[in-house]
Design goal:
By secondary structure, the protein is an alpha+beta fold. It is built from 9 helices and 6 strands. The protein has 2 domains: 20-84 and 113-182, no CATH class; 198-350, Ubiquitin Conjugating Enzyme, CATH 3.10.110. The relative contact order is 0.09. Keywords: Ubl conjugation pathway.
């Protein structure tokens, strides 16, 4: 993934830059997409209000289908009949060190540039609950195969045609999640094979792990215990002990960090195994965090800790991965008190 540095030396990826641009553009537009159409900025008639509801409904359906589901199915090798192609058949998939030699250079032009595949997968794990809740709320309002309503500004060659089929979207979402889960499991298997061959990536991750542990010891940081799982440098077990005078005080939280043989092109996936009611942790235990630098595991560990311990962060819509927790955390003071009470209860249960 391409990177560049900002004025203060921060490292930005192409994905982060594009995301910032899209957020800036979105801030200039109405939250009602119907009003963003030329000539309909001030449409307020009863017919317009009906059209608004129909327009939003089909945009939501097609956004899930075309912007979320379809690109992920393509990158994961999921076919229209529900079968999944083996990972080794994907054009960008390889764990063989020979890919770093001239042989790889000869094939490089044939491999499509897909810098956002891993980002999509990571974000899918973060927002899976949001996608499924959107489907569950919209499904009762439409019939299967019900055609989209045509808008007054839509014409030949410029229209959103199609029909609703939320049960199908739900089924495809579940398969995507299952496939990403299987891919993560495969990382460990492929990683162990690289370890046995003493491949460069396996050696590099072992060295990074050793340096991080040494640094923790030198700094007398006893809030964190880090180990390699069963000798596999592509699976790191992390235990975090809640620091005194914080909302996590007294808690013991176990996490697992899964690393890809293609790290850092594919970023780690962090799963919090100890149930914790936290606005940065999805209900499936996936942690949402942002490392300062993506190519060094030291920065990933630091970002994990920062995500868990942050007290008063600025609002960031990207971190809405636990809907119930986020609603309370970003709500009025009374809701925030409820959030911290629920967090404390889960912290207390972590030692049972």
């Amino acid at each position: 993934m391409r990177t560049w540095r900002g004025e203060r030396g921060e490292q930005w990826s192409s994905a982060q830059g594009l995301e910032s641009i899209l957020i800036s553009i979105q801030s200039l537009m109405s939250s009602n997409p119907y009003e963003n159409e030329p000539g309909f900025e001030n449409a307020k008639s009863s017919e317009d209000k009906k059209n608004m509801a129909h327009y939003v409904a089909k945009i939501q359906h097609e956004t899930l289908r075309l912007a979320v589901i379809q690109p992920l199915e393509e990158s994961l090798g999921i076919q229209s009949d529900g079968t999944v192609l083996p990972p080794e058949t994907h054009s960008s998939y390889s764990t063989d060190e020979e890919d770093e030699t001239d042989q790889y250079s000869l094939e490089e032009e044939k491999v499509p540039f897909e810098p956002f595949n891993d980002l999509r997968k990571r974000r899918f794990l973060w927002y899976y609950e949001s996608y499924m809740r959107a489907i569950e709320e919209a499904e009762p309002k439409t019939k299967v195969k019900q055609h989209f309503e045509k808008m007054p500004f839509e014409g030949t060659g410029n229209s959103m045609d199609g029909h609703f089929n939320y049960p199908e979207l739900k089924k495809r979402m579940a398969l995507i999640k299952e496939t990403i889960t299987n891919e993560t499991i495969q990382w460990a298997i492929d990683g162990l094979a690289l370890k046995q061959r003493e491949a460069a990536m396996a050696v590099s991750l072992e060295r990074q792990y050793e340096r991080i542990v040494e640094d923790l010891c030198n700094k007398k940081n006893f809030a964190l215990d880090l180990s390699i799982s069963n000798g596999n440098p592509f699976i790191w077990d992390l235990t975090f002990f809640g620091r005194p005078m914080t909302h996590l005080d007294g808690g013991i939280f176990k996490m697992q960090i899964s690393l890809s043989p293609r790290f850092p092109d594919e970023q780690p996936r962090v799963f919090v195994e100890t149930p914790l009611f936290h606005h940065r942790i999805s209900k499936d235990g996936v942690l949402c965090y942002f490392p300062l630098r993506t190519e060094e595991m030291r920065h990933h560990i630091e970002a994990v800790m920062e995500a868990l311990e942050e007290e008063s962060p600025p609002y960031d819509p990207r971190t809405t991965v636990n809907l119930d927790a986020s609603q309370l955390f970003w709500g009025p003071p009374e809701d925030k008190k409820k959030y911290y009470r629920a967090l404390r209860r889960s912290v207390e249960r972590s030692t049972e």
